[in-house]
Automatic annotation (TrEMBL):
<feature type="transmembrane region" description="Helical">
    <location>
        <begin position="747"/>
        <end position="764"/>
    </location>
</feature>
<keyword id="KW-1278">Translocase</keyword>
<feature type="transmembrane region" description="Helical">
    <location>
        <begin position="784"/>
        <end position="809"/>
    </location>
</feature>
<keyword id="KW-0813">Transport</keyword>
<dbReference type="InterPro" id="IPR000883">
    <property type="entry name" value="Cyt_C_Oxase_1"/>
</dbReference>
<keyword id="KW-0472">Membrane</keyword>
<feature type="transmembrane region" description="Helical">
    <location>
        <begin position="174"/>
        <end position="195"/>
    </location>
</feature>
<feature type="transmembrane region" description="Helical">
    <location>
        <begin position="829"/>
        <end position="850"/>
    </location>
</feature>
<dbReference type="InterPro" id="IPR035973">
    <property type="entry name" value="Cyt_c_oxidase_su3-like_sf"/>
</dbReference>
<keyword id="KW-0249">Electron transport</keyword>
<dbReference type="InterPro" id="IPR014241">
    <property type="entry name" value="Cyt_c_oxidase_su1_bac"/>
</dbReference>
<dbReference type="GO" id="GO:0015990">
    <property type="term" value="P:electron transport coupled proton transport"/>
</dbReference>
<feature type="transmembrane region" description="Helical">
    <location>
        <begin position="597"/>
        <end position="616"/>
    </location>
</feature>
<keyword id="KW-0349">Heme</keyword>
<feature type="transmembrane region" description="Helical">
    <location>
        <begin position="276"/>
        <end position="295"/>
    </location>
</feature>
<dbReference type="GO" id="GO:0006119">
    <property type="term" value="P:oxidative phosphorylation"/>
</dbReference>
<dbReference type="Pfam" id="PF00510">
    <property type="entry name" value="COX3"/>
</dbReference>
Amino acid sequence: MSSEPEAPHPRRPTPSGAEPATTDELDRLWADPRGLRGQLTGVQNDKIGTRLLLTGFFFALLGGSFDSLAMRLQLAVPQNTLIGPELYNQLFTNHGSVTMFLVILPIFEGFAILLLPPLLGTREMPFPRLGALAYWTFLLGGLLYYSSTLFQLVPDAGWFAYTPLSGPEFSPGLAIDFWVLGLGVAEVGAIAAAVEIIIGVLKMRAPGMTLSRMPLFAWAVLVMAFMILFAFTTLIVGSLLLELDRGFGTQFFDPQHGGSSLLWQHLFWIFGHPEVYIQFIPAVGVMAMIVPVFVRHRPVGYTWFVASLVAVGFLSFALWAHHMFTVGLPPLVLSFFAAASMAISIPAGVQVFSWLATIWAGRPVWKTPFLFFVGFLIIFVIGGITGVMVASVPFDLQAHDSYFVVGHLHYVLIGGVVFPIFAGVYYWFPKFTGRMLDERLGKWNFWLLFVGVNVAFFPMHQVGLMGMPRRVYTYDEGLGWGIHNLISTIGVLIIAPGIAVFVWNVWRSYRRGEKAGNNPWGADSLEWALPSPPAQHGWSVLPIIRTRHPLWDQDDLHRGDGPVERFVHGISQWPLKWRAAVIVGTADARPREVFRVAGPSIWPLVTALGIVLIFLSELVKLRWGAMVGALIIVGGVIAWNWPKPPPMSEEDEDAFEREYGVPVNAHGSVVVARWGTGLVILFVGTAFAALLLSYFYLRLENPQWPPPGVGDPPMAFALLSAALLAASAGAVLFAERRIGQGDRRGLLGGLVAALILGVTGTSVQWFDLTRLGLAWRAHAYGSIFYTLAGFVIVVAAAAIIMLTMTIFWTTRGAYSARRHAPLANVERFWRAMVIVWIIGFGTLYLGPYLT
């Protein structure tokens, strides 16, 4: 076997193609400000990605390491009194919550935001300010959650917060509120980063990088981001219902008043089980980049590998009740979820066999990243086998809530997720620091972790089968569990120095490690063509891609067909006064648009502070603060998107398009804005679907709907408001068509008519809701009625604010037949709002008549 990398084809130089003066000018243009101002306003992808990685690792040390060490020391021997039951409950709740919400996912989103621009051959992410918002909300949410320790109010109901244990009756204090509200802020950040990643992968790639040529890591984070959008949105809705029960006295989860404790489990596990695969899929993407490089062979079965990633994404949402086999679901339902739980092992197996075939065909190079891959493969396969075991209903009925499940979960998460994180750091550290991590320390790091993980978690399977339940803080002598728990504790004591070696290796190598060249591994993907570390703007001349392995196959990254080659060299020399990036076709990767990328701004931080103020105000029950937070968010978003004068005229844009055949939108991207609006609508639709699911679940649980003594709501006002809103959608569509014909007067008239109709229709419905007088605290019917209605009205209020700002900018002459993308996006959102309105209030007013 080879000891040093040897590329399948000799690597060839990849000239930058730009003059040094031009490169320096681009670097100054794209750099964030210096000092404190730059720290607060910076939006560069390398800064945001690195912050997410470091903050995630910081939370890992707090909640993933110290908590687990304390719990294992407590369980090392029977009848131990090191820590009491209350503290133990707090530790395992914190350990699970931090790991699932504040560590693994933010780290992988950090990898994505850091890597995608250089990996895909572009200069920046599509919404740099949205990436900054994602980081600030993640940081502030994590700090809000951890502030519970300052008040000795650490959550203690488990990371799953099952009702009624987490409800107001059994957890009346603020501890669970810290869990719901602090992690809720972080969940907003996860969704924001997901939107950034989706558009970045689909629309911002190098010319020629078609979908079939995309790196597997890009495919993996794309699937991850879509899963986040669906899963985390559902969890936010579930958390909203839980906090309404706790803080406002609603009855969503109280069976005595029409609620259902199982409703929380359904909403939570629609998030919770896909969450495991949300973490696993990007880990697979990391390994898919590492294996070909260190076995010197192209990946076997690229197309099947991509299909398996997509299949895992879909199937993960079909098995949420995998964790609910013991709650009393009908046998037919159990059979469906058991089959889905087993079926998901098939695409995972495709990935394993693809790696094995690639290794068989190549020549492994036993560097540290590849060692972590081998450790990952062994540990994850063991975790996958035990996962198939608990997918069997009869076996799960015996192993459920035992230490067998704890062992299975840690094999999957540590083998399937943590080892790839270490592998990714060792692999990409040279690119972004210019320094190599020490190989000798890396091997110590690997062997300590590999041995420690197996010693710590393998005995848990045996002690679980012997009957030891999970979430117990001690156990009696004579049960035969002591030796297994002692071995597990020794394993954790082996893991701890392994992590310490890693921290020391990173610190030492960053300061005085061996200097890395541009491509120390002989890798095949685009990021290794850039200097180490890359320049602020990344690519001076965009690469042109003709293969999946450009550094192994292409003589010159900047050579392509005539028009595309002329375009990439033209865009390298112009413009040099504003941040220009390129949009490509989703499938064919042909250049479609040049647009101006947003620069540094304080407003993402201000908006994040408004978000955390809403959650903090609910925590301390100063609800007027929530109104202040909402105003801060509205003001922050408006200021964030405040149009700047385009740095060039429409005539200059037309001239560039005539020369190169690619439109220029110096005022902002039409394509990116359209995709962003579409994903916002998808987010709203997912939240709306989760509320509808809650409504119909409660409807089926209650034979009398509404409850006795409550009449059916009259429909007259609802029909009137729906008609007014439908007419307003027609007025907005009319306005958009008028500006397309250059008719500014028709534009303004249509927008004003839509605003009047929309405000009138919303007011009519609001009046009707105030006169209904349903007892929203007495029964789940009133609770879900007003919650669903309130959601629809909030969506309408957001649309009204957007339309009002559009009218304001119309009066300022901001729109023309060429430049009216914001208007088109408002029309799309308004149309979606009207659909949500009709379905939402149609459900509320017609629901009682359904049998």
